Amino acid sequence: MDLGLTGRRAAVASATSGLGFATAQALVAEGAEVTICGHDAGRAEQAAARLGNGTRWIVTDLTHPMAGERFVTESVELMGGLDILVTNAPGPPAGTFATARLDDYPKALELNLLSVVRMCAAAVPAMRRGGWGRIVAITSISVRQPIANLILSNTARAGATGFLKTLAREVAADGITVNSIQPGLHETGRVRGVYGEGLDEEIAQIPSRVLGRPEDFGAAAAFLCSDQARYITGVALPVDGGVYQALQ
Fold first, then answer.
1. For residue 181, what are the domain limits?
2. How many domains is the chain partitioned into structurally?
3. Domain assignment of residue 248, yes or no
4. What is the arithmetic mean of pLDDT over 89-104?
5. φ, ψ of residue 239 in degrees (nearest 5)
6. For residue 114, what is the DSSP state?
7. What is the per-residue pLDDT across 123-151, written as a single tens digit (0 to 9) for each?
8. What CATH number is given to the structural domain containing 80?
């Protein structure tokens, strides 16, 4: 299926590895012009080289306020506009209500909520000028079903989901769709780092009994960026191997 993405300009945040990289890879495969960011110059340059097709890279640390806005602004300058924004950021440290400090919450909100707001604020004007846009946020299944020992991520990403749903309604008439994808456990360094030796036990709880493949996640993200997905907006899509159990 041709997703109609040839020549579209996409900014994919935190895309030097994991699900961000897989999403950038899927967009490049569909002919999109892509700019990625990462906090380490060497890794960002290497990831862009692996992606190929002239992928550009920017160094930015999304833990810093305004870094997300700068990433989008610089991407617009590099590519001469912007059609697609994929928001993404590393997860905050693990922790529970008992172990997380109050000082940890503002940092988590900056990383996984306010960075999303700032990137969208920078991207929407360019999309409105073009009369077409796709915003896809990589969040977490924890928005629907909180994950133990990840209270900071659960809290921040839930706020981002509320923001994205509201934004979707406000920009729909401008030809801009806003959706999020809520990954469960995938074969990434982040997942292996969080669960360590307990990962096999977690996999046993997944109905499909396997970790998700990043490339399959990337394909789902690319579809939401497509022409065919023009009537899908305000959706939060679980990609989790069947972990989420509720009817709604």
1. 9-239
2. 1
3. no
4. 94
5. -125, 90
6. I
7. 999 999 999 999 999 999 999 999 999 99
8. 3.40.50.720
